[in-house]
Specification:
This protein is α+β, with helices and mostly antiparallel strands. The chain has six helices and six strands; from the N terminus they run αααββααββββα. The radius of gyration is 14 Å and the shape is globular. It comes from Terribacillus halophilus.
Length: 146
């Protein structure tokens, strides 16, 4: 059973986002970004309570800006998704999760060492240049169930 409902255009959109955000970090890096996208779609808490689709997550606006830099800067649309990224996106949508992004709702590249918290959320781990953050215990249990 899929973690979130999706169709072929969701797979394509998610694949383009994964490529735009983490192509330089290889397949595993793209899968970690995919974890965050799917986690936000299943999380029923915090800033993500009203997000239920891949489209909702990708085009989510927080503080007047798109949540993902690739949408904000527009580079999510510069490259078409290749079959490889589509397979990775579908793998995330179906069930794939792995530490440090298994339950992460946030990631960023600090261009420095990862801080122990980010906007009050605890550091869950790092992969290459990206730092991943899970919700504080008890603030978003739905991400651990979905």
């Amino acid at each position: 059973m899929a973690r979130v409902r999706y169709n072929s255009s969701d797979v394509d959109l998610m694949a383009r986002m994964m490529r735009a955000e983490a192509e330089g970090e290889g397949q595993l890096g793209m899968l970690f970004v995919g974890n965050v996208i799917v986690n936000r779609a299943v999380a029923d808490c915090l800033d993500f309570a009203d997000l239920r689709s891949i489209d909702d997550v990708i085009f989510h606006v927080q503080g007047g800006n798109y949540s993902f830099e690739a949408v904000q800067k527009g580079n999510v649309f510069y490259q078409r998704a290749r079959e490889q990224e589509r397979r990775l996106a579908e793998k995330n949508l179906k069930s794939w999760r792995q530490h440090p992004a298994a339950y992460a709702l946030w990631y960023f590249n600090p261009y420095a060492p990862c801080p122990p918290t980010w906007y009050g959320q605890p550091f869950s781990g790092q992969f290459k240049d990206h730092c991943f953050y899970e919700p504080q215990a008890g603030t978003c249990d739905s991400v651990y169930m979905g």
